[in-house]
Design brief:
By secondary structure, this protein is α/β, with parallel strands linked by helices. The chain starts with a helix and ends in a 5-residue tail after the last helix.
């Protein structure tokens, strides 16, 4: 056991030597700054203007605090020491509340016997002045004896530093944890949001402010909610910008957000030198980021960046340029900056900011109500705040040039306007309050974890506890604060993020108010993670209280799609109409979509309308007309049959095979009637019979014409002396021709029905606005085989009739057949291209028209001359006129 103890003491001694060596190294690095400070103070030029006010309260353990309340405007040229009063002091009055929050939390803990009984807490708070040298100076004071700047020198008047609560700016937010990390002091960072670096992963550093990753996620939700896709980003420094471009830029791009300008304040610092006016550089920078079409400017930075941004906006207020929507991040809240000449902040009217969530702390208002310089001891901040907040001066003030009444010290804080000193708890004050309690609860947990030694740890012995022992308990700390909210760190040593969305309203007298319009809480389920009341937001007067748009170009309206512009970010695009038959029903669609099969795109191509069911019906004019034509020709054919039957004994009826004549007339009658199979809603039976009946009946008609043509030729040849062909004419050869031709066509139809029969179908695509009910022929090859076979018969009949047209008969039927076949072939040759070029029910109409016209051609050309002779010229209906031999 003694060996272990000696090893442990030796290990601690080694750690102590290592810490001393690191402090010496840091001290040597800071020596030029400290020497410069000492030389200036020795000269007595800054001594009266630049002191380090501190607020000190003794205790068994001490909280170190680095906050920002005051700063100084530097001279333009730093090559020489200035003569006369070189600095202009500015005060951010709101930040005094941060100091009071720390003091209030310590006071509550000391009065609470359940947290740290028999132990008192104190604090030592320094002002950072937003300058790295004074922050480093404060750090050296924390690890030095009281009233001496001797780092790592322990003596009887050395405070027991418990933890450091630092409200830092971006310039030093990465280096300070490294310096204090040598001693493993718990460091609770309460300044601006930081980016992810190796220093963030130090075991001694705890982020009370959500990291840049969480902050940008919140900004992304805000941009997406308002559909702002064309923005400007201003980062505090190059490091933040580089981190954003590497980590967050792809995430913004994936959500459809582009950047008109991406800049950092570093480029402004590079422009400014001893020979360039700061105003010129500032305005060049400002106009670069504001003279774009983007109406939304996201500014990511800290208090230092915000003060400079207020300066830029104040200068631009003179020019009254176009209003913008500012989105400000944590640490860049609008604050009252008190200086000799007031800055115009109306450019921030309507700005939105992601602020740290806060809640009212019981007893905090009472704590500050009676606070004044006369009843507070050790507060080195209160006089500067009091003088500038109440526009008065103390008789012993170093600000001799300041005009105003003498401060009585009896002024009341509650009489100050909200923008000067808010009485409600701000986000940063709330975080500092929770940071003080987090360390106290960790210390309490550490004491409670060693029950055997609890009796020994009394009085002075407790002072021997080392700060590094707190880390184990600080990582696991979880408690409910006085506002009833749970406070804990995640696995990365960060406070679980939660934001309030603040709308900033400014007034002509340079006052302003903050209005909470929403919140973001990643821990909340679903839709509760992001809530915002858009109706409560007041926008910049430039937008006439209408939600601003921020896009590279106007939105593509429904009916159009986006086409990216070459050489431009993907947010910049042209709008082109959707192709015919496609539609877009939302703004800014990348591609036009196709409507469902039972719908079609309207004329504006922004909506899908139901298609109408279409087929050739008896209720529409076209169907009625074709039906009437079919019926009329059928009646005419019937009359012709009746006429021929009535005059069946006349020579003209008996001539050229009377049976063929009746077969042809009946076939034509059936052809006219089969047109009714094509009209009406397609059914299974009609689809099966439609093309089959048409093919067989028409084949009978054409084969009858062919047989008649052959009969005419054979009859003429039989009249020649000694002709042996006479016996063929007397026999029933014509009937065999009709029968064989019809049987062959019927065989084709049977094969069609057996292999792929027609069936009812609906065509969704041929006609854009209709669902065409039709008979699907199933096999177009078989359909065209039927037509081709009829065509061959017609061509054969036409050829034979054409060569027989000059036979020397008084009534030569070959001429009539020639004309009829000419009409028939013309109709069906024109049918094929017409049929293929039409769509929907008009295809059926074309086929019906071809059936009627070709049948009517056969009826008219063949039978009209005969009917004329039978009915009107009966004197010619004699045998000597029908057959006249050639002499």
């Amino acid at each position: 056991m003694e060996v272990c103890n000696r090893c442990k003491k030796g290990h601690l001694r080694s750690e102590g030597r290592f810490a001393q060596m690191m402090v010496i190294l840091v001290f040597l690095l800071l020596l030029p700054h400290i020497a410069c400070q000492a030389q200036v103070l020795k000269c007595g030029m800054w001594n009266s203007y630049l002191t380090i006010p501190k607020y000190y309260q003794s205790g068994d353990f001490i909280y170190g605090g680095i906050v920002f309340q005051a700063s100084y405007v530097r001279p333009h040229n730093f090559s020489n020491y200035p003569s006369g009063p070189p600095l202009k002091k500015i005060i951010v009055t709101e930040n005094y509340q941060h100091i009071l929050a720390l003091a209030f939390a310590v006071k509550e803990i000391n009065k609470n016997p359940q947290i740290l009984p028999n132990t008192t807490l104190g604090f030592k708070i320094y002002d950072s002045f937003l300058r790295p040298r004074w922050i480093y100076h404060a750090i050296m004071q924390f690890i030095s004896p009281n009233k001496k700047l001797v780092p790592n020198y322990k003596c009887e008047n050395h405070d027991n530093l418990l933890a450091v609560i630092a409200e830092l700016v971006a310039d030093v937010s990465q280096e300070i944890p490294i310096v204090l990390g040598i001693y493993k002091f718990p460091q609770l960072m309460c300044g601006s949001a930081t980016v992810e670096t190796e220093s963030n992963n130090l075991h001694s550093s705890y982020q009370m402010i959500p990291s840049g990753f969480h902050l940008y996620r919140g900004i992304l939700q805000l941009l997406h909610h308002f559909n702002w896709r064309w923005i400007v980003l201003i980062a505090a420094n190059g490091e933040n910008l580089a981190w954003f471009m590497t980590i967050m830029f792809p995430k913004f791009s994936n959500r459809g957000i582009c950047f008109a300008v991406i800049e950092s304040f570093t480029s402004l610092y590079l422009c400014y030198d001893a020979y360039t006016e700061i105003t010129k550089c500032a305005m060049e920078f400002y106009y670069k980021v504001t003279n774009s079409k983007a109406n939304v400017l996201v500014s990511y930075g800290d208090t230092h960046s915000m003060i400079f941004l207020i300066y830029l906006v104040s200068i631009d207020a003179i020019n009254k340029s176009k209003g913008k929507v500012w989105i400000l991040t944590v640490g860049m809240e609008l604050k009252n900056v008190v200086r000799k000449s007031r800055w115009d902040i109306r450019g921030f009217h309507g700005a939105l900011s992601l602020a740290l969530h806060s809640n009212e702390l019981p007893g905090f208002r009472q704590f500050i109500q009676n606070r004044n310089p006369s009843n507070v001891k050790g507060d080195g901040f209160i006089k500067d705040f009091w003088a500038l907040a109440f526009h008065c001066k103390f008789q012993d003030s170093v600000l001799g040039s300041m005009s105003g009444n003498i401060c009585t010290g009896e002024e009341k804080l509650e009489t100050l306007p909200q923008h000067v000193f808010p009485r409600s708890v701000t986000g940063h004050s709330y975080i500092i309050y929770n940071a003080v309690y987090a360390v106290a609860h960790a210390l309490h947990a550490m004491y409670s974890s060693i029950p055997k030694r609890r009796a020994m740890l009394k009085g002075e012995r407790r002072k021997q506890q080392q700060p590094w022992q707190l880390h184990h308990f600080l990582k696991m700390v979880s408690f409910n604060n006085s506002a009833g909210e749970n406070v804990f760190f995640d696995q990365n040593g960060e406070l679980v993020p939660r934001f309030d969305i603040i709308n900033w309203i400014t007034f002509p007298n340079q006052s302003f108010i903050r209005v909470k319009v929403g919140s973001m809480d990643p821990r909340a389920p679903g839709d509760e993670a992001f809530t915002i009341n858009k109706d409560a937001i007041i926008w910049h007067s430039w937008f006439n209280q209408v939600q601003p748009f921020s896009v590279c170009n106007a939105n593509c309206q429904p009916g159009y799609r986006m086409k990216r512009k070459e050489g431009q970010p993907f947010c910049c695009y042209d709008c082109i109409p959707c192709p015919r038959g496609r539609m877009s029903d939302h703004k800014d669609m990348a591609e036009c979509s196709t409507c469902p099969d039972d719908q079609y795109a309207n004329k504006d191509q922004n909506l899908c309308l139901p298609k109408i069911v279409s087929f050739l019906s008896y209720e529409e004019p076209l169907g009625i007309s074709l039906a009437m034509c079919s019926l009329s020709f059928s009646l005419i054919t019937t009359l012709v049959i009746r006429t021929f039957m009535k005059h069946h004994n006349t020579p003209i009826v008996k001539a050229n095979n009377q049976d063929l004549t009746y077969t042809l007339l009946i076939s034509l009658l059936l052809c006219f009637l089969c047109a009714f199979l094509f009209i009406g809603r397609p059914e299974k039976v009609t689809c099966l019979l439609r093309q089959i009946a048409f093919g067989i009946v028409f084949t009978m008609a054409v084969s009858s014409v062919l047989a008649k043509t052959i009969t005419v030729v054979l009859a003429f040849m039989a009249t020649q002396p000694g002709a042996r062909i006479k016996k063929w004419v007397e026999q029933s050869m014509a009937n065999y021709i009709v029968l064989l031709c019809s049987i062959f066509q019927a065989g084709i139809c049977v094969v069609w029905l057996a292999t792929s029969p027609p069936f009812p179908d609906s065509d969704m695509h041929s006609v854009a606005e209709e669902i065409v009910l039709q008979c699907n022929e199933s096999s177009s090859i078989m359909f065209y085989c039927v037509l081709s076979y009829m065509g061959l018969l017609a061509i054969a009949s036409f050829t034979v009739a054409f060569f027989a047209r000059r036979l020397p008969d008084s009534f030569n039927e070959a001429k009539c057949i020639t004309f009829s076949m000419l009409v028939f072939c013309s109709v069906w040759l024109s049918f094929v291209p017409t049929y293929l070029s039409t769509k929907g029910k008009y295809m059926v109409a074309v086929e019906i028209f071809s059936i009627l016209s070709s049948s009517a051609g056969l009826l008219g050309c063949i039978f009209s001359p005969k009917c004329y002779i039978i009915l009107l010229r009966p004197e010619l209906n004699k045998k000597e006129h029908v057959i006249r031999r050639k002499h």
